[in-house]
Amino acid sequence: MEAGAGGAVDRLLPMTAATDRPTRRLLLVHAHPDDESINNGATMARYAAEGASVTLVTCTLGEGGEVIPPGLASLTADREDTLGTYRIGELTAAMRELGVDDVRFLGGAGRYRDSGMMGVPENDAPGCFWRAEPDEAAGHLVAVVREVRPQVLVTYDEQGGYGHPDHIQAHRVAMRAYRLAADPGYRPELGPAWRIAKVYYNRMPRSVIEQGLRDTAAKALFPGVAATGDIPGVVDDEVVTTALDGTAYAGAKAAAMRAHATQITVDGEFFALSNNLGQPLLATEYYQLVHGEPGPGAPEPDLFAGLDAEAAR
Ligand SMILES: [Zn+2]
């Protein structure tokens, strides 16, 4: 199902009866449109193709982003300020490429505005996500958790992967909602309590990204190459618990990233953001399990590994 033309995509599907739910249910919480495709595009495409329920909650419209195509330059916040609306369309197109039909904006489209990079005046703007009251923001997510009843939650680490205020806030809101959703005493009107079995952070093993950046320098056509420090979520290899082989979905991931054309330029197995610094487009996506029991495999090959999903209905 697709978002209505130009409309909000905070509720694309009617609520599904519990007996009709897919057995495996994945929830991803991201800050801006495009983060999901860059971090989890292959993961989302794979689970959607396998019949799992995949729900994406995006916290802002990414209104503060730069714009790569010169013909769209007037969308930016300092000119027409219509980038957020435009990016709803990009996200909708990206989700079509991944086969994901449950996409929502936290609190509804436009409820929280992009806060800009750390240290800019937009960090203090009323209505920006960085200034959101965490309990109020988490309440919107608790409602989603209790409706969808996911076994797996994916979000960022405490630094938001690389320090962007909206990514840090997405982490805080996701973790707060994870705890509150499981508390039967918290706002019972939002639905019965639900405990998410496994929580993961997006990660990038240092050895993988270092090799990927060497490949980028050797083969990619971008004018420069990103540094390891530019890449979100880089950790020592042993921190990574889970590697999701999305090779079969690399094309879908690349197509989803291309759909975010204001933000991303894709060149074969490489891509660049508006800084035009190349980095590898990886089909294997990496995670760190931070809550829940690991399943078999080192690294785990599956976010649902070890779960008795039938029992989790
Ligand atoms: Zn982002």
Automatic annotation (TrEMBL):
Keyword terms of this UniProt record: Hydrolase, Metal-binding, Zinc
Domain of life: Bacteria
Catalytic activity entry: 1D-myo-inositol 2-acetamido-2-deoxy-alpha-D-glucopyranoside + H2O = 1D-myo-inositol 2-amino-2-deoxy-alpha-D-glucopyranoside + acetate
Organism this protein belongs to: Kitasatospora kazusensis
Function: Catalyzes the deacetylation of 1D-myo-inositol 2-acetamido-2-deoxy-alpha-D-glucopyranoside (GlcNAc-Ins) in the mycothiol biosynthesis pathway.
PANTHER family: 1D-MYO-INOSITOL 2-ACETAMIDO-2-DEOXY-ALPHA-D-GLUCOPYRANOSIDE DEACETYLASE (PTHR12993:SF26), N-ACETYLGLUCOSAMINYL-PHOSPHATIDYLINOSITOL DE-N-ACETYLASE-RELATED (PTHR12993)
Family statement drawn from the similarity comment of this UniProt entry: Belongs to the MshB deacetylase family.
InterPro entries assigned: GlcNAc_PI_deacetylase-related, LmbE-like_dom_sf, Mycothiol_biosynthesis_MshB
Protein name, as recorded: 1D-myo-inositol 2-acetamido-2-deoxy-alpha-D-glucopyranoside deacetylase
Note on how the cofactor is bound: Binds 1 zinc ion per subunit.
Enzyme Commission number(s) of this protein: 3.5.1.103
Cofactor(s) essential for the protein: Zn(2+)
Residues given in the record as Zn(2+) binding sites: H32, D35, H167
Pfam families the record matches: PIG-L (PF02585)
